[in-house]
């Protein structure tokens, strides 16, 4: 709490908040796209510093949360095969599938390993040539270069038993869909810093130009986010719609060409389903034919006839800003971090987890 108190007491924070209060003279609705922003906004109580005219809503910025139920189920089904080792980042383990989780599957005998980098999964495959090691590729443009590097290294080293279950998604097509949704009626986007460090800010320019929605790329410190909100307010008041970079210490207009070249070498776009948003054209990725030998989807066991999700879970509406976590009847009652009904309560970047930890249950460890 000391860090939070120091932020709120800082002269600069008070100055920026005062500017926002003076200048936000009409209702404005801004959506943060990055789950790390969602966590920071909740942790530092930024909404309490803003005037009633400013409404912040969380978007589909958590890659684990937007992964559809069918893909989660398919990855878990891979673990039922006797010669398969599943490798994943830790935040996937407790995400509910239709009937179970990776954590429960591991308790039941499935070989599920937590890795900290995609290359760790390649090394795991190299050390165990008798097993098929499948890495779960869930993430946005931030993690895709590292996954692409792992695939190219596996091919270069001849590690034929390394496979990728590709559930990667890209942010811009989702923003296009949200920008055109009149029900949400956005006045501005707080664009993700991590993703933008890879793809650059120019990717958002068509959104600002075609939909008249201001965009500001910002960092993750509370002062970064406050300044981005003020920059959006200033654009709205000036009837402008352009892309600005607050996070200049890490983001450029062009992004990281080397990282994008690595991604383009390994992956090619395809249509993809997003939880809460449906199928978005060109928003997913699959392995190019050159690397098809490492595609785990070639041997995913057949799916059951239906995919089931808890009827009271509102993750889909929360991910599109149509509902707040507290609007869900299961929030903090039937759905908690100990017993999550949906991924928004599980992920470290989930809107429900942020709301539960810092607002509904501020003393939760």
Description:
- The protein has helices spanning 2-9, 11-23, 35-43, 46-49, 63-66, 69-78, 102-107, 118-127, 144-157, 171-179, 193-199, 205-211, 222-237, 257-266, 315-319, 351-360; strands at 28-32, 54-58, 84-88, 111-114, 132-137, 162-166, 188-191, 215-217, 243-245, 267-274, 278-287.
- With 365 residues, it is of the alpha/beta class.
- It folds into 3 domains: 2-63 and 173-245, 3-Layer(aba) Sandwich (Rossmann fold), CATH 3.40.50; 68-170 and 282-299, HypD, alpha/beta domain 2 (Rossmann fold), CATH 3.40.50.11740; 315-360, no CATH class.
- The strands form 3 sheets. A 5-stranded parallel beta sheet has the order 2-1-7-8-9.
- Strand 10 (267-274) and strand 11 (278-287) form a beta hairpin.
- Helix 2 runs parallel beside helix 13.
- The radius of gyration is 21 Å and the shape is globular.
- The chain starts with a helix and ends in a 5-residue tail after the last helix.
- The mean pLDDT is 91.
What is this structure's SSE topology?
Elements: H1 2-9, H2 11-23, E1 28-32, H3 35-43, H4 46-49, E2 54-58, H5 63-66, H6 69-78, E3 84-88, H7 102-107, E4 111-114, H8 118-127, E5 132-137, H9 144-157, E6 162-166, H10 171-179, E7 188-191, H11 193-199, H12 205-211, E8 215-217, H13 222-237, E9 243-245, H14 257-266, E10 267-274, E11 278-287, H15 315-319, H16 351-360
Parallel strand pairs: 1-2, 1-7, 3-4, 3-5, 5-6, 7-8, 8-9
Antiparallel strand pairs: 10-11
